[in-house]
Amino acid sequence: MSQIPLARRSPIAPENCNLARTIEIIGDRWTLLILRAALYGVRRFDDFQAELGCPRTVLSGRLKILVDAGLLTRKTYKVPGKRARPEYVLSAMGLSLRPILVGLTQWGDVWLGKGEAPPISFTKAGSKTAIRAAFVDPEGREVRPDQIRAVLRG
Amino acid sequence: MSQIPLARRSPIAPENCNLARTIEIIGDRWTLLILRAALYGVRRFDDFQAELGCPRTVLSGRLKILVDAGLLTRKTYKVPGKRARPEYVLSAMGLSLRPILVGLTQWGDVWLGKGEAPPISFTKAGSKTAIRAAFVDPEGREVRPDQIRAVLRG
DNA sequence: GGGCTGGATTTCAATTCCGAACTCTTTCAA
DNA sequence: TTGAAAGAGTTCGGAATTGAAATCCAGCCC
Fold first, then answer.
1. Does A90 contact chain B (CB < 8 Å)?
2. Chain B: nearest CA to A62, how far in angstroms?
3. What is the per-residue pLDDT for A132?
């Protein structure tokens, strides 16, 4: 029934596993919620704070981590008549997490959705049909999950 | 430059957002590392502990959460001549996170990879070319990131 | 100057985490 | 029959992190 054969250890030590490294950066409740908000267009400190409802200390710290890691870029914006403020904009590095967060959203729709229609869905521009996160080969054709093979180097 | 227009709040309140709900369950360092190990075939308490190096109390708690949430199933295994022990195997719900963890791995390969060849890569069965996470339409054709539109219900 | 505003820091109790030792149960070995 | 081993936890202090609120701080307005 379980597709995965028993292993006592993973084939890659967590120290040099890029998945483990990724988890070190974004594997955190608040960090993920910040990225969620950022992908919806939130950029300012107080807006993040209102959105997440987290302590300002935590928000401040997490934003710093994300900027240092390169997922967010700290820019300055200026509303006329107000002083300049920093805003936190997704970099290309952060933007490229979008398929993953959409994938997580769709996973939640399936397994946590309580039968309701999902509150947000995704379509191709100019079309009404839904799109989904998936794997594709180099030519852009879908590869079904059961066709995925892992290959170890060396 | 930034593709995402400024927003003061996200269009969906975190309370009834399936992405936020997902993050509540698996948005945690140790939880994600447990799932990583589980997807590599690790099943037993002490093996998880050796793999993650986390306190046994934390592991015990996280496993309980994952079992309660339905991602792991607690079964009993018996090595001949040894007493029966519990093991934690991925349910269908947990297995369906695999594409997401593969996506995170590849994101790490691109952005954290330090120029080395990734220690693990993914291909389509019977092929040698790499696959990648992307969006597809219902027919399985790739949709480029700039063509994605979010649609709110209601 | 004095108030306002949006970032960020300080403070401190409450929680969570860590690490090591300890428990409990069954099986094997002396 | 006693005892050692092994696996899966639990117990227990001390350390670190979190949460909530108050405070600070810099520039823009009047």
1. yes
2. 14
3. 86
Calculate the angstrom distance between C1' of C24 and CA of B56. 16
A50 compared with B88, residue with greater pLDDT: B88
Buried b (16+ CB within 10 A) or exposed e, A75-105: eeeeeeeeeeeebbbbbebbbbbbbbbbbbb
Q: Which residue, chain included where needed, has tokens 């009404």?
A: A128
Are B140 and A142 an interchain contact pair (Cβ–Cβ within 8 Å)?
A: yes
Query: In this predicted model, what pLDDT tens digit does every residue of B17-67 receive, in sequence order?
Result: 999 999 999 999 999 999 999 999 999 999 999 999 999 999 999 999 999
**Residue found under tokens 């908000």:** A37
Structure confidence by residue, pLDDT tens digits, A74-89? 998 887 777 788 999 9
Tokens for B76, please give them. Answer: 């009993």
Give the contacts of A84 (CB within 8 A, at least 6 positions apart). Answer: A76, A77, A78
Q: Could you tell me the pLDDT band of residue A2, with boundaries at 50, 70 and 90?
A: low
Q: What is the pLDDT averaged over residues A4-28?
A: 93
Mean pLDDT confidence for B83-104: 94
Residues of A in contact with B152 (CB under 8 A): 119-120
Sign of the CA dihedral running B118, B39, A99, A147:
positive
The answer to whether A36 and B22 have CB atoms below 8 angstroms apart is: no
Residue B2: the pLDDT is 53
Q: Judge contact between A147 and B124, C-beta under 8 A.
A: yes
- Pair of tokens at residue A77: 């914006």
Nearest to B9 by CA among A7, A40, A58, A103: A40
Nearest to A47 by CA among B10, B21, B24, B18: B10
Interface residues 34-53 of A with strand D (CB < 7 Å): 53
